[in-house]
Amino acid sequence: MKSLLQRYSVQLFLVTLGGIITYLAYQEAIGLYFLSVMMFMGVNIILSTSLNLVNGNMGEFSCGHAGFMCVGAYVSSILGVLLFSKDKIFGAPLLDPGLAVYLFPLVIIAGGIAAALAGLLVAIPSFKTRGDYLAIITIAANYIIISLVENLGVIGGSRGFMGMKKVINAMRDTVDLPWMVIWVFIFTVFTIWLLRRYNTSTFGKGVSAICQDEVAAEIMSVNTNKMKAITFMLSSGLAGVAGGLFAYIIGYVNPGSFNILKSTEVLVMVYLGGMASLSGAVMSAMFFTILLEVLRPLQIWKWVIIPLILIIVMQFRPEGIMGNRELSDVFPWMKRFYRFK
Amino acid sequence: MLESIIQNLINALQWGSFYALIALGYTMVYGVLTLINFAHGDVFMVGAYIAFFVATFILGALGLPGWVALALTIPITMILTAGVGVSLERIAYRPLRRKGAHRLYVVITALMCGLILENANLAIFGASRKAFPELISVQVYTIGGVSFTNLKIAVIGTAILSFFILQWIVTKTKVGMAMRAISYDKFAVPLMGIPIDNIIVITFILGSAFAGLAGLLFAMSYPILEPYMGALIGWKAFIAAVVGGIGDIRGAFLGGFLLGAVEILVVAVFPSTYRDLIAFSVLLIILSLKPTGLFGIAKTTKI
User: Do B101 and A268 touch (CB under 8 A)?
Assistant: First the structure.
């Protein structure tokens, strides 16, 4: 029988970590720069773990993740601005700005739901095609989404959309806490928890079966179409959540920041961490964010050195940092600290 | 009305020629290795830059007339660009293939190689755009209200000629037979005494050389060079190759011309910002109707 402390140690650790970060941010002990790097780290973790679900666990090759991020970012920004702040385009706020504190997570989740619906765009063609044909469909979906936003003049077109800072300010006026830090932390933990539960559930087993052999999975009574649709929607929905958080962290979105280069970044995080490894995806997202910031002084050479590092990593460790193992497979003592397998 | 249709058709053929020439490289490498060589669009960009430096050198340092310079630039560009493609294969892809890494890791490596080519170019030569020197004087012909330049005709002619050369190589020669054999069964081919690595190198030489040719022609038609010019065209050419049925030379050509035609038509009717939106939507519709592409053959998989 495990002791109570041991059983709840992960929860305890997360609550303490979140509390410490929030307290430090509240006391302004961490600089604004480090704070934003940490928040981007959270966003990148959500992106890489959610793409890992499709590219790693399901074995498909989706390369348009930034497109779904774009949908989530725009939907949640527009909704937030429409509801809680005075804007030149949308006029007076529909609700009392004081409610922003309570409804903010719903706004982000609404962006996620919209992105999940966009994910159906990819899920339906994936019923028939696989592998490289799916890659092309996702690239095309990414271009279509960006092009659509650029042509919608109402929400700023290619100039971008802003006004999210007012929503954040409305939240801070009601309760003075560093809200973005808190929500990024909560959504990151939520994503990892959700994906862990999903992968170890019956659904997750079906997803790995599709990865191994789709036809055999179908024969073994796995409803592959349903499974693919749900998995794609979950993955793109989480990308939408990441996009919403990204938009509120920066306070400004434009379609150019969700182009194919952003998708490439996410792909790099997934394959650097190792396919189908959740902890690998988390670690590589953190590593990659730090690498981007450390190499920032090099300016344009940064984008020569990062791919070079990746190519060298691939040459010596072609399966990524973790392969398809989890951190708890490498360090078995970690299994003592959480309950389910 | 008829004139504008023919005019747009000529424009579409010229624009599609570039896509077709680049799509060839994608489709040949894919046919042999089942590898999406995402660096190919940037090989095209490198080809355009090589053409720029070679042409400027020949015109400036040697002081030869334009047509001689063109005659020298074409083979030199093709050879040097082929060298770039082959070195990518030797340095980045072959060691991974030897290790038996997952196919997608090779794809990611290709993506990274493309980024390196783009950004190293930007870092070394700067962001200022380069103006390509005029090698041959452009003449405009007008027949019955339809105007075209000698350059446009040359581009379209080169693309069609390249198609016939490559189609001949792939279907009629021993090397082509070996290429098709590798795509059919990768494991039995070395047992038959076919040097698999040499065949792969030849595939990269052919694909990259024609990308270099496309770069030269593109630089002559639109004489502004910038480091990111290859990225978008490369992605689009890949889509064209897939729509045609990847792994098939005819498919790459048809897909390239189709994409060119769709884009020119969209620009002729709608505002030009709608170009990507409508072009990609049309391609998605084609792919959802015929998931293996126009010339692709659905493979049956054994369990």
Answer: no
Domains in chain A and their CATH numbers? 4-337 (1.10.3470)
Please spell the DSSP secondary structure of A272-309, one letter per residue: HH-TT-HHHHHHHHHHHHHHHHHTGGGGGGHHHHHHHH
User: Would you state the pLDDT for residue A242?
Assistant: 94
Burial class (CB in 10 A: 0-12, 13-18, 19+), A70: buried
**Has residue A341 got a pLDDT over 60?**
no
Measured between beta carbons, which residues in chain A are less than 8 angstroms from residue B287? 125, 129, 133, 136-137
Contact across the interface for A304 and B292, Cβ inside 8 Å = no
Measured between beta carbons, the chain A residues lying within 8 angstroms of B245 are none
Report the 10 Å Cβ neighbour count for A293: 16
Instruction: State the CB neighbour count (10 A cutoff) for residue A281.
Output: 35
A267–B119 CB contact, under 8 Å: no
Summary mean pLDDT of chain B: 86
Q: Residue B270: inside a domain, yes or no?
A: no
Q: Categorize the per-residue pLDDT at A45 as very low, low, confident or very high, splitting at 50, 70 and 90.
A: very high
- ipTM of the complex as predicted: 0.82
Torsion of CA A332, A213, A118, A150, to 10 degrees: 90
Chain A to chain B, count of Cβ pairs less than 8 Å apart? 123
- Give the whole-angstrom CA distance, residue A310 versus residue A302: 12
Q: Which of A57-71, A118-132, A219-233, B176-190 shows the lowest per-residue confidence on average (mean pLDDT)?
A: A118-132
Residue B294 inside a domain? The answer is no
- Chain B positions touching A308 (Cβ under 8 A) are 112, 116
Instruction: Count the neighbouring beta carbons within 10 Å of the beta carbon of residue A170.
Output: 22
Total domains in chain B come to 1
Task: Summarize the confidence of residues A59-79 as an average pLDDT.
Answer: 90
Q: Quick check: A150 contacting B, CB < 8 Å?
A: yes
Mean pLDDT, residues B257-275 taken together: 86
A312, A47, A56: which is closest to B109 by C-alpha? A312
Burial (CB < 10 A; 0-12, 13-18, 19+), residue B121, is buried
- Contact status, residue A71 vs residue A145, Cβ threshold 8 Å: yes
Over range B260-284, report the average pLDDT: 85
| pTM (2 d.p.) | 0.87
The rounded distance, in Å, linking the Cα atoms of B118 and B116 is 5
Q: What angle do CA A273, A279, A282 make, to 5 degrees?
A: 70
pLDDT, residue B301, reads 57
- The answer to whether residue B276 sits within a structural domain is no
Contact A311 B122 (CB under 8 A): no
- B250 lies in some domain: no
Q: Which two tokens stand for residue B173?
A: 């020669």
Domain that includes residue B153, residue range: 2-227
What letter represents residue B204's amino acid? F
